[in-house]
Amino acid sequence: MTMTSPRPDTCPSAGTARSPLPEPSDGHPAATDEIRVGAFLLSAQFPGQSHAEALERTVGTAVAAERAGLDSVWLAEHHFVPYGVCPNAVTLAALLLGRTRRIGVGTAVSVLSTAHPVALGEQAAMLHLISGGRFTLGVGRGGPWIDLDVFGSGLAAFEQGFPERLDLLLRWLRGSRVGADGPQFSFPEVAVVPRAAEAATATGPARVPDLADWLGLDPETGALLRFPRQRRDGVSTGAHPQGGPAVIVACTSPNGVRTAAERGLPMLLGMHSGDEDKQQMLAAYRAAWRACGRGEEQLARIEREHVAAGVVQVEDRTSAARDSLLRTMPGWFEYGLGAHRTVDGRERRMRDPYEYTELLCDLHAVGTPKHCADRLLATAERTGIRRFALLAEGSGERAATLHNVARLGAEVLPQLG
To answer: DSSP assignment of 218-230, as one string?
Structure first.
């Protein structure tokens, strides 16, 4: 017998609601709302580097981000291209959750078009439970790449299949027994093991002294040990964290925005988006949300969880920060993105790598510590977004990346209030 219950937290008109782009509103963060800054790590292989060097830089940067007081690290996944040499963000997240004690670790993103939602849900549930709730599952469609042929999901999974895959994933993360009866997935009802949303038990990971120490909890009192600046309350002090892992959806189009809003999920916005683009996408999200009849209080809570991807490079002079990125990132874009192959041979046009790097420098926190802080505060003021995932490895060098993260924590975060 298959389970055909309604999709969780889904608008009754999901898949049919229109997504107009009304005039953007002036979202202003409340005075008490904290701006949270994380590092976005692509495991980029710059020209002349080995795969091992790129991955080692990612691991070292994540550890440095925790030391610097950042809120989170976000991991990308790619296949068959040097743009990013991590093929499975969940696997790398598992390693980093073991190497760190309190920082959040998220995927940005795990590609649902080439992953089975149940397999991904099982992995996410396990990481959620054993990390004390530090894991966030970011998901997206990916692109029309040769990956779809290699992994056997086909172009339809990319072009039409994302909503079904996302709904199955959400049911798995929130349920106890799940079956499927859809175009892509059809199977009888099975038990969800491990169950991400299980109720807390009398005994659990946070009550075991060794694991409590690993999670950054005092082994005697269970209280969270003090870390600098951010995420001081970011680790669960109970047993198993309830409710399952946080889920966030990468949104680059009106359809993606509507898909996230109809399911009550926050958005991850790309680093190519300026503040005006973000405002339009937020306005479209609110329109789709309200069309589902949801309340404003819940909307306000979800909007605090939207994440904006960007770039950060901290130097003593803004010109030096820009020069640093303009020396390295165009070559990486040309070398890395140029290696993508489409699944059906369709033509794809790349942005000019140098012009794209200049655009990113204009849009994001690239400059002196004050300039970087002002840029983040301006985006928060204009859009209401208060969570950021900033690409910190644009210099391409391990030592320079670690130094960049250290300056972000020591010189930029304190200026964010």
So the answer is: -TTT-PBPP-SSS
